[in-house]
Design goal:
About 30% of the residues lie in helices and about 25% in strands. The protein has seven helices and 21 strands. Strands 1-2-16-15-17-13-14 form a seven-stranded antiparallel sheet, with helices on one face. A five-stranded antiparallel sheet has the order 3-21-5-18-19, covered by helices on one side. Strands 9-8-12-10-11 form a five-stranded antiparallel sheet. Strand 13 and strand 14 form a beta hairpin. It is globular. About 0% of the residues have low confidence.
Length: about 325
């Protein structure tokens, strides 16, 4: 290469280094100015939204802990919950449900923040809880469990943990009652232990949220289906966020919600988020959606990467889990 070519090559390398230096400066400048200003500046609402959304995820909570202690995060979540627990019970335009021949109404709506999918089941007695074949050991997808029950529709169920390390969806948080029988925990010694944040459906199709009960107590009281989940977001027709459920319900996230309307129909809602510019919904958002379907009692099921809706043989929403539909221990499904 001649001296002129070497000089040109040297200039190009110098220019590339200059551009890289500028980009690195911008990144560092943003990190040391914009991020601290956002989190520690005067805009507490923005800070609370960011932190509560991070804490509502399973994978990114550590990012919030870079900037705040556990005690500070708990206070932020508390503030955010109070902000969401609005008394906005003003008149909301009601959705007129068009039922298909299967007795189910299905609608989907796209917004700037999220995509929503709603199923309305006219007969509440068709709504059941199903569970994975190896519940307590390893879970299954909403799709897989729905196929097991030959369900026409389903959404993912309650929260869970994986203490055995056999993969996600292993162990329900609390008890699970299906068709009047306690299917989890398997040991009868635990059936009299009271648990809060209970969702239940009795033999007459009456849907209840909240309260503290044991599995045995519910079965004796003619409850057919029950699991532990939360928070409830509408109680007896009033917007109200149940206390004590914690971080999983905070921020803007994909969500799964179940409720019962004044005419006793059951409403199942899923919210897609964490995809591109669509972040998901807040509790206030899902309160408003459920109230538009005249829901008088509603509770959140597991959300985030678990959120899935099955209808007529396929998943109709777009689950946010990176590897596709996530395994869960239980579902809420609709009989044929």
């Amino acid at each position: 290469m001649d001296s002129g070519g070497k000089l040109q090559n040297k200039k190009r390398k110098s220019k590339v280094k200059e551009i890289i230096a500028i980009i690195l400066f911008e990144v560092v400048f943003t990190a040391v100015t914009v991020i601290p200003f956002t989190l520690y500046g005067p805009f507490k609402g923005v800070r609370n939204m960011i932190i509560s959304t991070l804490m509502g995820t399973g994978a990114h909570q550590y990012m919030a802990k870079w900037f705040f202690s556990d005690a500070q995060i708990a206070e932020i979540i508390k503030e955010e919950s109070k902000a969401e627990d609005t008394s906005d019970n003003t008149k909301i335009e009601k959705v007129k449900v068009q039922y298909n021949d299967d007795g189910i109404g299905y609608t989907t709506t796209k917004t700037d923040k999220y995509d929503e999918h709603v199923l309305v089941i006219r007969n509440p007695r068709r709504v059941k809880i199903g569970y994975a074949a190896q519940i307590g050991y390893v879970g299954d997808t909403t799709h897989g469990i729905a196929k097991k029950y030959k369900a026409i529709a389903a959404v993912n169920g309650g929260y869970y943990e994986d203490t055995l390390g056999n993969g996600t969806g292993a162990i329900p948080t609390g008890f699970v009652i299906c068709n009047g029988k306690i299917v989890y925990p398997k040991k009868e010694d635990n059936w009299d232990e009271k648990m809060g944040h209970v969702m239940s459906i009795d033999a007459n199709g009456n849907f209840s949220v909240g309260g503290s009960y044991s599995a045995n107590e519910l079965v004796k009281n003619n409850v057919n289906e029950a699991l532990v989940t939360g928070p409830y977001i509408i109680k007896d027709g009033i917007n109200k966020v149940e206390e004590g459920v914690g971080m999983a319900a905070s921020g803007f996230n994909p969500r799964t919600v179940i409720g019962q309307a004044a005419d006793k129909s059951i409403v199942l809602l899923t919210i897609d988020g964490r995809q591109g510019i669509k972040i998901g919904a807040s509790l206030h958002d899902v309160q408003r959606i459920m109230r538009s379907f005249n829901v008088v009692n509603a509770v959140c099921l597991d959300g985030g990467g678990s959120t899935a809706m099955y209808y007529n043989g396929e998943i109709v929403n777009n689950p946010s889990n990176a590897t596709g539909e996530r395994a869960v221990p239980d579902i809420v499904y609709v009989e044929q």
